[in-house]
């Protein structure tokens, strides 16, 4: 007989791993760390956050299941508001709650939040610097077969152009939970973009998250990858394989704080002379455009390439297929870096 176990060793400061117990082995065999969708992590952790601060309220646009908000609604029924399919009203309503001393967390699909309610994000939240936390689910093409209408490949370009909104994109469950904890200390507008594809455990449970921060995950002298969100795991895998197979030292920096961004980290990466920016976003207006602007303003010169979603409407497909198509997976990143180094 065999059965699966979820095991956590707090002394290792890591999230649970999947194990299997067999009476043949007579012991627990470690299989690997749990891959989990960040919408599950963030949506469910809101209940923990609600226990920490009674002023926290959650506002949703009839997507409590999609955004994983049902646990919060059951735990705090008087602090959960479903405004229906009315994203503009949702953002304005949240801004009003913040004026009365509440700390609203707004949840819906990123495309609906940043485009349908764009004016409300700007005028009702950002203009008055309201303490509203906006969480956009289905970031990038992670929505897969939901199609282009439900993808959010323009959201960073939109929100980055609105003054006063801090933008974040995390890449694993520990970073996500700690960002939510950190958000309680920030009395300013925040936009957090969240994909729905499973992510790997990259950071320890005590990883620090700050406004304007970044994490150097690997150092390198041949090339640097600057990335955020789901593509961090692909970038790390690509960097490891490039070293093993080709001997190239490729650095990886997680730019989880997109606005404000860590300028020093970008300048440091330029030391290699080659930069590759990888993000699940349109190649225009996203991390690639932000980094390029900083390089030019800093007077630096590097070989530069951006991997993202081309400026086209793509047919629907499951997210892993799209990541392969757009060279956002490890195979595509390796191919791009080899070309960047050798040509």
Structure description:
- It is a single chain.
- This protein has 12 helices and 17 strands.
- It is of the alpha/beta class.
- The strands form 4 sheets. A 7-stranded mixed β-sheet has the order 6-5-7-8-10-9-15, with helices on both faces. A 5-stranded mixed β-sheet has the order 12-14-13-16-17, sandwiched between helices. It has a 3-stranded antiparallel β-sheet with strand order 1-2-3, with no helix packed on it.
- The longest helix has 16 residues, at 231-246.
- The N and C termini lie far apart (56 Å).
- The relative contact order is 0.11.
- The model is unreliable at 1-32 (pLDDT under 50).
């Amino acid at each position: 007989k065999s059965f699966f176990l979820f095991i956590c060793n707090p002394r290792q400061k890591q999230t649970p791993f999947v194990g299997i117990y067999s009476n043949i082995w007579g012991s627990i065999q470690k299989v690997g760390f749990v891959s989990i969708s960040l919408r599950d992590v963030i949506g469910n952790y809101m209940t923990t956050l609600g226990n920490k601060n009674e002023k926290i309220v959650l506002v949703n646009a009839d997507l409590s299941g999609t955004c994983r908000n049902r646990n919060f609604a059951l735990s705090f029924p008087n602090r959960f508001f479903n405004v229906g399919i009315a994203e503009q009203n949702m953002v304005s309503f949240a801004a009003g709650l913040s004026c009365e001393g509440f700390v609203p967390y707004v949840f819906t699909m990123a495309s609906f939040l940043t485009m349908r309610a764009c004016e409300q994000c700007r005028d009702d939240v950002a203009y008055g610097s309201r303490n509203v936390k906006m969480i956009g689910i289905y970031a990038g093409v992670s929505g897969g077969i939901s199609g282009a209408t439900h993808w959010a490949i323009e959201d960073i370009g939109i929100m980055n152009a609105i003054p006063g909104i801090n933008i974040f994109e995390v890449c694993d469950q520990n970073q996500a939970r700690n960002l939510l904890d950190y958000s309680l200390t920030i009395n300013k507008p925040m936009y957090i973009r969240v994909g729905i594809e499973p992510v790997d455990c990259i950071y320890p449970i005590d990883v620090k998250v700050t406004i304007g921060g970044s994490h150097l995950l690997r150092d390198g002298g041949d090339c640097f990858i600057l990335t955020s969100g789901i593509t961090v795991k692909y970038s790390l895998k690509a960097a490891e394989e490039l070293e093993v197979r080709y001997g190239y030292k490729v650095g990886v920096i997680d730019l989880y704080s997109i606005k404000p961004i860590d300028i020093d980290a970008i300048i440091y990466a330029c030391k290699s002379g080659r930069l590759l920016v990888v993000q699940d976003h349109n190649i225009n207006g996203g991390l690639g455009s932000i980094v390029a602007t900083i390089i030019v303003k800093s007077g630096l010169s590097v070989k530069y390439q951006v991997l993202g979603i081309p400026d086209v409407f793509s047919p629907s497909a499951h997210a892993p297929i799209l990541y392969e198509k757009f060279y956002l997976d490890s195979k595509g990143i390796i191919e791009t870096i080899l070309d960047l180094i050798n040509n």
